[in-house]
């Protein structure tokens, strides 16, 4: 019991629940994963999952290193918001250009993106979403409280990164199931276009918020 109290902060269960509930709310990462998994299946989307988890881990690390200093970086957050909006518009535009064609279920997709490209796209999606920074800042400071130890913060951070990775892999694995793929086959291009439009709406919303705040 003493080991558990040393590793896990008193508010760990509340943090874990709040974090998982947030994962259930579809955001830019989810629609990016959906678009890729529907076309490229698990092998063409696993790198995205790792990149998204790494981006979340980077923000958690920044919060652990300097939670109080992060609150002062308002200009940095504005720059990240602008870059994130442009990034979402760029990805969304490419997905929205998807053309009607039937998914080949009996062979691997020859145009599957490389793991390196998948990772960078996932990393960019997570890092260029300023809501991730604000979310983890709230969880790791306000929820855990001022008495949390560095070890407890680290364990909580590892837990959240692992949950993000496992959840995203579960999502793309489900979409990659043969039964799901058969249902998606004739409507794949529609799903990609919807995902692209949603991502562009996210990007446009960020730009609108930035311009109205000036």
Describe this entry's structure for a reader.
The longest helix is centred in the last third of the chain and has 26 residues, at 150-175. The chain has ten helices and no strands. α4 packs parallel to α6, α4 packs across α7 and α4 runs antiparallel to α8 (150-175). By secondary structure, the protein is mainly α.
Key descriptive features of the protein:
10 helices, mainly alpha, single chain, 214 residues
The average pLDDT score comes to 77
Give the helix level as a range of percent. over 70%
* Secondary-structure content class: mainly alpha
The end-to-end distance, rounded to whole angstroms, is 52 Å
Report strand %: under 5%
Number of helical segments with 4 or more residues: 10
What general outline do the C-alpha atoms trace? globular
Unreliable sequence segments: 102-108
What is the H/E order?
HHHHHHHHHH
Number of strands: 0
State Rg. Answer: 19 Å
For the biggest sheet, the summary is: none
Task: Set out the fold topology.
Blueprint: H1 2-7, H2 12-24, H3 28-40, H4 46-70, H5 74-96, H6 115-127, H7 130-143, H8 150-175, H9 178-184, H10 188-213
Condensed summary:
It is built from 10 helices and no strands. With 214 residues, the chain is an all-alpha fold.
């Amino acid at each position: 019991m003493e080991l558990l109290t040393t590793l896990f902060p008193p508010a760990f269960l509340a943090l874990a629940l709040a974090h998982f509930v947030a994962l259930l709310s579809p955001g830019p990462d989810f629609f990016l994963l959906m678009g890729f998994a529907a076309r490229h299946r698990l092998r063409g989307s696993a790198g995205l999952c790792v990149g998204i988890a790494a981006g979340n881990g980077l923000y958690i690390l920044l919060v652990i290193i300097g939670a109080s200093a992060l609150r002062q970086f308002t200009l940095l957050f504005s720059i990240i918001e602008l870059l994130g909006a442009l990034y979402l518009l760029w990805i969304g535009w490419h997905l929205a250009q998807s053309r009607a064609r039937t998914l080949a279920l009996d062979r691997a997709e020859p145009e599957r993106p490389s793991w390196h490209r998948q990772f960078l796209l996932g990393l960019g999606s997570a890092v260029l979403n300023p809501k991730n920074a604000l979310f983890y800042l709230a969880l790791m400071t306000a929820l855990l409280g001022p008495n949390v130890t560095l070890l407890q913060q680290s364990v909580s951070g590892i837990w959240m990164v692992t949950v993000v990775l496992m959840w995203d892999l579960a999502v793309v694995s489900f979409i990659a199931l043969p039964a799901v793929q058969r249902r998606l086959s004739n409507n794949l291009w529609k799903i990609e276009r919807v995902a692209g439009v949603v991502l562009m709406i996210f990007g446009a919303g960020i730009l609108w918020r930035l311009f109205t705040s000036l």
